[in-house]
Design brief:
Layout: H1 4-21, E1 27-31, E2 43-46, E3 49-53, H2 54-73, H3 84-100, H4 105-116, H5 122-135, H6 140-153, H7 174-195, H8 197-200, H9 221-241, H10 246-258, H11 264-280, H12 285-304
Parallel strand pairs: 1-3
Antiparallel strand pairs: 2-3
Helix pairs in contact: 1-2, 2-3, 3-4, 5-6, 5-7, 6-10, 9-10, 10-12, 11-12
Length: about 300
């Protein structure tokens, strides 16, 4: 008889191979197959669609969760970017857990730590969260993690892009601070360009840093505009997959309020899109709230300028 743990590890390995071999996977699902059939691989990939048989998904989750919990209880081996095997093991465990149970907050928190330590890229988790939302469009933890990724990436809340008072306390420190800021911005720009194909065309846009100011506009307006449109598309798909999706529309309002910078073009497009959705989904009460928020933002924009 095959050891369940060994079989679970094999299934996890197959999932990892498919995710790495096909970066264009845009959807996955759990196939209703309750029992194994003749040692057949329960993981399938057809035309960028990933499928995992239910018995295999359950076994994969149990194996990953058991090893992950054991790692947490034994003191959590320190993260080390030089130890690629440990990093790969931890990413695989959390990925397999989140594919089956996307509201596993501990797994998301571990991935946040990896991102803060620059062991994991923002773009990798943006891709993972987008994929998870195709199967679990109402996952609150997935949307929360996506907001954290965007906030961190765009330096809205990231300590990496905020000035330390001790560093910039004197005028002579300004040049060294700007140098550090430029290095950080280059990393952020590279991350942003890898989020979507459309942003790659914006790679040549320059980013200007005001030397006399502590405020860092690390993201070019065109790149931010591209990210906003891509994020609104993710919200739209999640809302279409699950009726009255409160989390999707709440996330959509957050994107408009925090990422669009009240850009009149984005606000106008969003207003028209929301109106169209309301007309075709009359029962979506949450959309009405979103429409009101967008309208208010457009009015504030027109008054400001």
């Amino acid at each position: 008889m095959v050891d369940p743990d060994c079989l679970g590890l094999k299934i996890m390995s197959n999932v990892e191979i498919h995710l790495k071999s096909d970066p264009e996977i845009d959807e996955y699902d759990i196939l209703p197959v309750l029992m194994s059939e003749q040692n057949r691989n329960p993981v399938r990939l057809i035309e960028h669609k990933l499928g995992i048989e239910s018995w295999g998904a359950e076994l994969m989750f149990r194996t990953a969760a058991k090893d992950f919990d054991k790692w947490l209880k034994t003191g959590r081996k320190p993260f080390n970017s030089d130890n690629s095997s440990h990093k790969d093991w931890l990413l695989l465990q959390t990925t397999c857990i989140l594919i089956v149970v996307p509201d596993h907050s501990t797994a998301w928190n571990i991935r946040k730590e990896l991102i803060v330590k620059r062991i994991l890229k923002h773009s990798d988790d943006l891709r993972l969260t987008k994929l998870i939302l195709t199967k679990h469009p109402k996952s609150s933890e997935t949307f929360f993690h996506r907001r954290w990724l965007l906030s961190n990436l765009l330096s809205l809340e990231s300590p990496a892009f905020k000035t330390d008072a001790a560093v910039c306390s004197c005028p002579q420190d300004t040049s060294s601070y700007c140098q550090v800021a430029s290095e950080n911005a280059r990393e952020v720009t590279s991350e942003i360009e890898s989020v979507g194909k459309s942003s790659a065309a914006l790679a040549s846009n320059s980013i200007v840093f005001p030397r006399e100011s502590r405020r860092l506009d690390v993201v070019h307006s065109d790149q931010r505009h591209c990210l906003v449109l891509a994020e609104l598309s993710v919200c739209q798909q999640a809302a279409e997959r699950y009726r009255n999706n409160y989390n999707a529309w709440t996330h959509r309002i957050w994107v408009i309020q925090h990422l669009s910078c009240c850009c009149s073009q984005v606000m106008g497009q969003e207003l028209e899109t929301t109106k169209g959705f309301v007309c075709s989904h009359i029962s979506e009460q949450r959309v009405s709230v979103s429409t009101v928020s967008d309208t208010v933002a457009v009015i504030l924009r027109s008054r400001r300028f």
